[in-house]
Amino acid sequence: MAVFIKSSPILTGQSAVNFDREADRNKSLKTPKLSDADIERLERFIEKSKKFKF
């Protein structure tokens, strides 16, 4: 049985204008980066999770 799934809503009017303004504002924001300590902590976490037994 096929079911139609709408892929995404279409913005019109003031909603579209607000979305465009927010997108333009966000593209100039700095993207946060992980520190070396954070990366090391995540790597340890991933290794421990691989060894975890249920």
Per the principal axes of the C-alpha atoms, what is the gross shape? Answer: flat
Helix content: 55-70%
Instruction: Output the radius of gyration.
Output: 21 Å
- Given the helix and strand composition, which structural class is it? mainly alpha
Question: How many DSSP-defined strands?
Answer: 0
Strand coverage percent:
under 5%
Order of helices and strands: HH
- Poorly predicted ranges: none
The rounded distance between the terminal residues' Cα atoms is 38 Å
**Overall average residue pLDDT:** 89
Individual helix count: 2
Largest sheet: none
Characterize the structure shown.
This protein has helices at 13-27, 36-51. Helix content is 57%, strand content 0%. The longest helix is centred in the C-terminal third of the chain and has 16 residues, at 36-51. The protein is mostly helical and 54 residues long. The protein is built from two helices and no strands. The two termini are 38 Å apart.
Question: In short, what is this structure?
Answer:
With 54 residues, the chain is an all-alpha fold. It has two helices and no strands. It is flat.
